[in-house]
Amino acid sequence: MNAEAPPRGLDGFLKSLNCDRGYGWALLGACVFLALVELGGEPVRAALSYQRTAIAAGEWWRVLSAHFVHLDANHALLNTLGLVLMWALFARDYSPLRWLAIYLVAALAISLGLFVFDPQIEWYVGASGALHGVMAAGTLAHLRRRDLDGWILAVFVLAKLSYERWRARCHSPARPTRWSTPTCMERSGDWRLRCACARAPTRSDRCL
């Protein structure tokens, strides 16, 4: 029996991170896309962010595009690093089209949840909420294969959500947290993932 030897060296390292060949180029393309959106600055952010009044007026694309723009370069960098981590863990668990569908469905669920159940939130940007949906889908794939790391990931996800629910009860919207500035406070919701909320004098803002 001739078993194919696993790749070694740089090729083996890249494959272990799901960054070999087409996977690597796809990840690079996704990171470049997020960087280009951030380089668009405030005009792009204003055109693509979740804005409740704009969505109600018919600018429906914002329910998805808000999950591709960020508050600033640091926010974009953190979410890009989160994307790289999710890629290394889960990229081969689904086809590229299914991953795109998972991300978009997670993004849509978050935006619709904000619109229906959190009407005081008028403004929102960020990818990390949808990335949590990616993490949940990847964890489910590992659990279906009965991989040990699937159970570890499941415990981590449940612990993280439980912690965020506890923080939601401890830090109400009117109560400043360690992130607070005169215009910024953090809050989380039971179904919502970790949210950094920046409130303008006349509206509630949120970023993920």
Describe this structure in words.
This protein has a 3-stranded mixed β-sheet. Strands 3-4 form a two-stranded antiparallel ribbon. The protein has helices spanning 9-16, 21-39, 41-48, 52-56, 62-65, 73-90, 96-117, 128-144, 148-170; strands spanning 50-51, 121-125, 184-187, 195-198, 204-207. It is 60% helix and 9% strand. The protein has a single domain (18-207), classed as Rhomboid-like fold (Up-down Bundle), CATH 1.20.1540. It has 9 helices and 5 strands. Mean pLDDT is 80; it is low at 172-204. Strand 3 and strand 4 form a beta hairpin. Helix 2 (21-39) runs antiparallel to helix 6, helix 7 crosses helix 8 and helix 8 packs antiparallel against helix 9. It is globular and about 55 Å long. It starts with 8 loop residues before the first helix and ends with a strand. By secondary structure, the protein is mainly alpha-helical.
For this entry, give a set of tags.
208 residues; mainly alpha; Rhomboid-like fold; 3-stranded mixed sheet; two-stranded antiparallel sheet; 9 helices; 5 strands; 9% strand; globular
